[in-house]
Give the backbone structure.
Amino acid sequence: MDAILLLSVLAEIERTLVGGLVRGVDAAGPHGLWLDLVTSQGPESLLLTAETALPRMARGAPRPPKTRPLPPLAGAARQRLPGTRLAEVAHGGLDRVVRLHFEPAVAAGSGTAAGAGPGARLILEAFGSRPNLILTDAESTILEAARPTSGSARPCLPGAPYVPPQPSRLPDPRLLGSVEAVTAVLESSLRTGLAPERALRQGFAGLGDLWASEVVARSGSASPASLARTLTALLGEIAVRPPQPHLVVDEAGAPKAVVPIHLVHLPDALQQPVPTLGNALERLAGHLVGSGGVAAGLAAIRRLLRRLNARLASRRDKLRAEADEFARAETYQKMGEVLVANQRAVPRGASEVALPDHTGGPGAALTIPLDPALTAAANAERLFRLARRGRRGTLRVASRLAETEAALRQVETFAASAAEVRDARRLEDLQRDLQQAARLLRPGDRRLLDSLTAAPADPRRSAATPGAPRRAPEKRRAGPEPRRFVSSEGLQILVGRDNEGNDRLTLHLARSEDLWLHAEGFPGSHVVVRLQGRTGGVPRQTLVEAAKLAAYYSQARAHGKVAVSYTLKKYVRKPRKAPPGLVTITHEKSIVVTPDKALIARLAHGVED
């Protein structure tokens, strides 16, 4: 709330509310009060709030919703203000500190106080990042505050004396007293080469861009005397004239400011007349609170996405390092085989040995690291164990690496969506999408998303009908439907579409006696052949076709010949807390096939691949 708008609001309050009797007090959120008054003209109300989005005073504001529990300021005001009269509004110049003086009401003709207690003061500090609303007694001792503070140059705690803020170092045009004094200040600023608008902003307290531009437009001249006369006349007009409130909007129609007069420097399309200042202020406050909620919620989601991206990138780097280590599986296997073939050439207690490598050509040698405490045979077995571990680890790490890279792409998609958020509805959609990506989130991430309140609910959204049955909660997505094929021998073949789809196929759709297949050592689709109670195993042609599908729908598609493991589904297990798509198998056999894209069309029978 700028100083000139406050000047108009206070002029209206002085004309209509001074002398009014306070009948009651309600809380207006955690930082405000709503006063119910009776004046000679009938019932009235006054809102005072230190809300960060728009600290303000407004006559005629509707009664706010109940606040529970009752804030301390509202509790203290309820004890102190009912039964008093608004005696005076004290405000100096264009200062944004307003003092409302309340005195005990006196019963007409009796000379006795109608109020139950002494008078009080309400002080609104409508500026800064932490505006405040303070209740004091008649001697300026603080009774309660919307934002109590301690340990500062101006402590604001119950029992402490109220200390006013330091006045602005800039002169106040209303307190200078004359057009000549205002002219002198402007002459000094304009001589330095400042533009008229900037000279007004930097020369006086209480003038922002909007009002500086208005003074220049009304003046029609850049001379100090003309600007001074225009400014003085404008402030005088606003202080005595009933307001003609307008809502200043941007090109999209969003409220930006409230002004008490029509501005000549703005086109009419950017100024909407409003019936009362109170109505205009509440519309602006509603927009600012909603925008602030959207901005705060969006900032929190962007911080969460940055954390997720850093977390997943770190996991990817570790998995790549593991993959590099496991890639040595074939080297370990070869070392073990060479060591077995040349055990007698290995000296006891050696830490390494160079042995002939017949696969490397004439004269080639292979240097093999050894454990000096083990025999050559035991060292060979150790190398074979490392090779087996590497082969198992390669499949596990490849699956986790593919999952991690997919999660990183998902975070990038969310970040792109966040860049397009402009309103509460889009923010709510993004928040809901993130909450459904449960595998990305840790418990703290989920708590953060659950705690976000973006903005007041969109009034266009229909409210729940009383007595209507409650909608059942939406089940978590179990994964997409598998691709469906029919083998040349008439058996159904199902192929998972992604990691979640693999889990759905293997854990929920496949039966224990169905055949399960997967490309060895590469991330890819789970494949299931429905055997439908057949005896004698899977027909050979169906096995080959299912294996080719498993090879084609894997990252080994371009690798030529591919080894595919197969076993019955009852020998497939999902480790506890394993990521989607990762399983362990036993009793497996292998078949080597070549991926065949032409097979897809032949087996699909109209089903898209």
